[in-house]
Amino acid sequence: MNLLLEISNNALAVTATLTGIGLVFAALLIAKLISPKSYSVKKSEPYECGIPTRGKSMIQFKAGYYIFAILFLIFDVETVFLYPWSVVMRSLGPQGLLCIGIFMFVLIMGLAYAWRKGALQWK
Amino acid sequence: MFNFGIWTSEFNNFLMGFLPEWATVLVECVVIALLVLLTYTVLALFYILYERKLCAWFQCRLGPMRVGKWGLLQVFADMFKILVKELISLKDTDRFLFKLAPYLVITSSVVMLACLPWGNGLQIIDYNIGIFFILAVSSVGVLGILLAGWASNNKYTLIGAMRSGAQMISYELSLGLALMTIIVMSGTMNINELVWAQDKAWFIFRGHIPAVIAFLIYIVAATAETNRGPFDLPEAEHELTAGYHTEYSGIHFGFFYLAEYLNLFIVSGIASLMFLGGWMPLHIPGWEGFNNVMNYIPSIVWFLGKSFFVSYVIIWFKWTFPRVRIDQMLSFEWKYLMPLSLFNLILMAVIVAFGWHF
Lengths: 123, 358
Description:
The complex is a heterodimer.
Chain A: H1 9-34, H2 63-116
Chain B: H1 5-18, H2 21-58, H3 74-83, H4 95-115, H5 130-151, H6 155-186, H7 191-196, H8 203-206, H9 208-225, H10 237-240, H11 250-274, H12 288-295, H13 299-318, H14 326-353
């Protein structure tokens, strides 16, 4: 049951999104109006313990995070397959359980492979 | 139980009496937006005080005491101060992404807040894939954090954002699997139906062992998802200054601060929805008198009480456990929590298939 029965969920979701955007926009507007403004070269430097930054900051970065992101991508897509199954699980009965058991077995083997290959090792 | 839907449908009928249909919908949308905004602000203020007071009590201090009675007005002073601080513009930042990041973080938490069931008939967005929708929206928040770190043109923020991204995406898996364990038992993802399914007893009692394990996994994963407690690596202040929001100043920083506290409330709200019955009072099968007494307590009190309790536990973690290292954190998720939650899901599926739960 919704708060108000007449409005569709999509309209409510759009309302909530616009509320969030409106909140940020309004607060920024108020802050811009009442906050002080000043400019100095030192102030616009990136913060780094008082020493000037060496080189660029938007650099290519440690590959360790990248491997975890790829692993996440694989597992997240597979968990998306599990969601519909979990809803209809009762009506599928033991046969559905067997099928998803095979699917889960492949999933766990994937994790075991990544583990064995050392992808989970932080280097 | 009192159904708040009576009030809202009264209001709807009242508006329909003298307005055309499109105007009614428009007025109702504006009212909902204002209500959500008010709730968001009040909850954020409450949570800042709650955390400050609790952390003080855990350390045998008093916490803020000067402004107002027991320091109750301290948060208003802080918020006003943050609002009047200067918004420093930096050179070499990616301006568009730098300004976009707070929008993503705040909007995702507002939409998640609008999905929670506040009481009987007090719910705004009610998709039939409710819980899945919440998880999907929560991923947008991660995007905001990654953008904030990248666009700031600072090495601290870059490392903080990468850590935060790796942590949040990793723990999202076991979070999702823990929630899926409950979906297997209930057979629905609709939030309202999930609450009504706990009419006899809460899911944590109905699903016994796997539900309790799922609850524990969920609490750990939720602590990591909100970047709190022993998992606050993205903000490890002795290494990274303030992590991904180092370069944000004034109200820009305030947005990340607000979203962090609101995310704490939202994960507690989901825990109370999925495991502790949402707004459903404590019902014990067979004890009719007891159940009737419990029904007299309003549903919104139940929901807020459970959520604040779960938040209390998560704040308690923060002041009890020392911070972990990044490799410890990632290996804990991928080598222990993730296989455990997969096996727990299979266990729950077997239990449900053979009808061994209540």
